[in-house]
Amino acid sequence: MSPDQAVIDIRGVHKWYGSHHVLKQCSTHVNKGEIVVVCGPSGSGKSTLIKTVNALEPFQKGDIVVDGTSLGAKSTNLSRLRSRVGMVFQHFELFAHLDLMRNLTLAQRIVLGRDEDRARTKARELLDRVGLSAHAHKYPSQLSGGQQQRVAIARALSMDPLAMLFDEPTSALDPEMVNEVLDVMVELAREGMTMMVVTHEMGFAKRVAHRVVFMEDGEIIEDSPTDVFFQNAASAAAKRFLSKILHH
């Protein structure tokens, strides 16, 4: 049973692509202010699971409840729910034809109904927060990958989300750019942002995660406090995964 304070509650979720069963009886939760890292080998269902949380991927069985709202209920306004759950993707997904300021103000104005002045004030605050205030009028193509990902985080935060989802946010970056993105995420964690993060960055997981969810072949194999997972993983699959990813 998930605690009453769960912001994200995943309950027995199944998903199929045709006959391919990609999520199998997945259940976990993320409490308010908690950071949960989802890891596992490629093809284990991690990204699919996190995308079901804001209905970017539909599921066929089970339910997901976000801040008391069931994604499975026909009456649920999924667009409104998505606006309350920030999502940061592997490949940034910025609007290439808009400068950074407009990337951060567009959804604020259209979805949240903020006036231009308030939206721009919020955008400036967030660009400063991620160390990019001097680049406000540049276009995404003028930035490095790490800078673009920091803009993507700022854009998600501009919607005042109740939780943030990260789908392998550093996997498309050159190694020297990874830390600048992780540093922003660590700061968010310190500020108490509720976060669900799909990543192979186990140093990040050790540093800030409260729990680690390990997946293999569409199933949640382990769901443990971080220190327990790293010091005494229960499953052979998790031990294999850790031995490969921590071999340095």
TrEMBL record:
The keyword Cell cycle does not apply. Keywords: Amino-acid transport, ATP-binding, Cell inner membrane, Cell membrane, Membrane, Nucleotide-binding, Transport. Residues 8-242 form the ABC transporter domain. GO terms for molecular function: ABC-type amino acid transporter activity; ATP binding; ATP hydrolysis activity. It comes from the Bacteria. It holds the Pfam family ABC_tran. It is a peripheral membrane protein. It is found in: Cell membrane. InterPro entries: AAA+_ATPase, ABC_ATPase_HisP-typ, ABC_transporter-like_ATP-bd, ABC_transporter-like_CS, MetN_ABC_transporter-like, P-loop_NTPase. Transmembrane segments: none annotated. GO terms for cellular component: plasma membrane. PROSITE patterns: ABC_TRANSPORTER_1, ABC_TRANSPORTER_2. Belongs to the ABC transporter superfamily. PANTHER family: AMINO ACID IMPORT ATP-BINDING PROTEIN (PTHR43166), GLUTAMATE_ASPARTATE IMPORT ATP-BINDING PROTEIN GLTL (PTHR43166:SF9). This is Glutamate and aspartate transporter subunit ATP-binding component of ABC superfamily. The gene is gltL.
